[in-house]
Design a protein that fits this description.
By secondary structure, the chain is an all-alpha fold. The protein is built from 9 helices and no strands.
Length: 146
C-alpha cells in the first residue's frame, strides 16, 4: 500500500476515514484504549501502543511499518509485558494483511532470521522463546510459496 507523505502526522480515524462510536464507561480497559489510540497521531505512538493495536489487528497497513522500524532497531523492543512482545504481536497478526503486503512480510521474515541467534541466546523464559518460534513458523508459512 502506498502511503501519503504526511501519514505519520495523522491518526487512524482520519487515515481509515472511519470514526468509531463513543465508548461506554463500563467498557473494558482494552476497548477504551483502542478507541483512544485511534485518535492519537501515529507519530506519537509508543511501543506499547503499537503492541496493543497490532495485537488486535487494528490499523495494520499504517502500524506495521512503524513496528518494523522499531524491530529493525531492536528485535527485542518491548511494550509493557516483556522484551520481544511487539515481535510476537507482529508475527501473530492477521495473515490476510501479510498476504497482501508481501514486501513487509519479507522484511519481517528476514529480520527474524537475521536475529535468530539473538533470540535463541536471549535470557528469558522458554515459553516466551517458544512463542516467538511458534508464531514465526506460522508467519513464514503465510507466503512461503512466494
Amino acid at each position: 500500500m502506498k502511503l501519503e507523505n504526511n501519514w505519520r502526522y495523522k491518526n487512524l480515524e482520519s487515515l481509515e476515514k472511519d470514526s468509531w462510536r463513543p465508548t461506554l464507561k463500563e467498557e473494558s480497559y482494552l476497548v477504551i484504549t483502542m478507541h483512544e489510540l485511534r485518535k492519537k497521531q501515529l507519530n506519537d505512538f509508543t511501543i506499547e501502543d503499537l503492541r496493543i493495536m497490532i495485537g488486535q489487528n487494528i490499523g495494520l497497513p499504517f502500524l506495521v511499518p512503524l513496528a518494523i522500524e522499531q524491530l529493525e532497531k531492536n528485535i527485542l523492543v518491548e511494550g509493557d509485558f516483556y522484551e520481544g512482545d511487539l515481535l510476537k504481536n507482529v508475527l501473530g497478526s492477521d495473515p490476510e494483511y501479510w498476504k497482501s503486503e508481501k514486501t513487509n512480510w519479507q522484511t519481517v521474515t528476514e529480520l527474524f532470521l537475521s536475529n535468530e541467534q539473538t533470540l535463541d541466546e536471549f535470557d528469558t523464559t522458554r515459553n516466551i522463546k517458544n512463542g516467538w518460534k511458534e508464531e514465526f513458523k506460522k508467519f513464514r508459512n503465510i507466503n512461503s510459496g512466494v
